[in-house]
Amino acid sequence: MPRLNPFASGRTSLTKKGESRIDGHVVALAWSDSLDLITAASADGPISIFDAKSGQVRHALSGHGFGTSCVAWSVDGKHLASAGQDGKIRLWDPVTGNVAHELPAGAAWAERVAWCPTANVLASAAGKKLRLWNLAGEMVREFPDHPSTITDIRWKPGEPILASAAYAKLSLWNTNSLADGEAALIREFTWQSSLLVLEWHPKARFMAAGAQDCTVHFWELASGEDLQMSGYPTKVRELSWDASGRWLATGGGPTPTVWDFTGKGPSNSTPLQFDAHQDNVNCLAFQRRGSYLASGGEDGLLALWQPGRQKGALALAKHDAPITQLAWAGDDQRLAVGTADGAVVLYAL
């Protein structure tokens, strides 16, 4: 059971609103704003859809055999997709809880799904295969095979441009192009390490990537100039931009580290560092439009920060198991937290 200790901000605190559970480690967490539903996926495979107000289970979905890897709601919040270690992509009807379509991802393990921000088009990544699907379950595009396993895919904010990461390579694709796959490739960037996770700058000025070699790499997209942030104690899988694009929060150890991208940017600058966690940070999430940053750690600690305004934590909540997932609601007033022992806890500011 989480224990809450709000302090330091005067008016800011976290209030626990409810707790639900799934069987197994929470490997993915996603929020439908239009339906006010929270989806939590277990590493064992099953997926649960919860009512965000009552915490009651709306649907218990079978998920994926051998384990679910990813869930995602469409931008309109009305369509749910999942990927799993059975090599399948599934589109679910959130009203009935039934499978609308089952799609072949192209490899034994489907790693990622991501919805386009401008249309109900779904991108999937499995092995070296990058594919696009429509709501009818039809594959509308398959891109040329990547040279190695795709580790992450991210859509450009507000545009049908898709970024994909693999070993030593970041690729940008024009998904509206009717030409062949090679012509759809807009640009490539290279870096001699495995890129694990991507995050677009909110105004698409930069692309940040967490890497296997314990660095964060980013590119200024207009010039192609790149920069490395090193010195992290572990490989970096945790990245989050604030809505203004000023702050980039990074994990890669027990201390959330936040870089300032104003002025000349983070080059030769000292980042902000926030101390509270006793073990590695597992997840970071800025509010969608606000300035609060949430961090969740292997130590079970949830911390709330405000970079540039507060040096210390605004609030802390201790859980009995490692925190594995964080997801803000669209109103920025509620935060869903998933843990390694299957808890899904809802907090409100």
Write a compact overview of the structure shown.
This protein has 349 residues and is an all-beta fold. It is built from one helix and 31 strands.
The Rg value, from CA coordinates, equals 19 Å
Structurally, the number of domains stands at: 1
Write down how many β-strands occur, each being a DSSP E stretch of 2 or more residues: 31
The level 1 CATH classification is: Mainly Beta
Biggest sheet: strands side by side, in what order?
A: 15-16-17-18-19-20
Number of helices: 1
Distance between the amino and carboxyl termini: 19 Å
Average pLDDT number: 93
CATH level-4 homologous superfamily: YVTN repeat-like/Quinoprotein amine dehydrogenase
CATH architecture: 7 Propeller
Roughly how much helix do the residues carry, as a percent range? under 10%
The stretches of 5 or more residues where confidence is low (pLDDT under 50) are 1-10
Structural class: mainly beta
Assess the beta-strand content as a share of residues: over 45%
Tell me the CATH topology: Methylamine Dehydrogenase, Chain H
C-alpha geometry: globular
Oligomer: single chain
Biggest sheet features: 6 strands, antiparallel
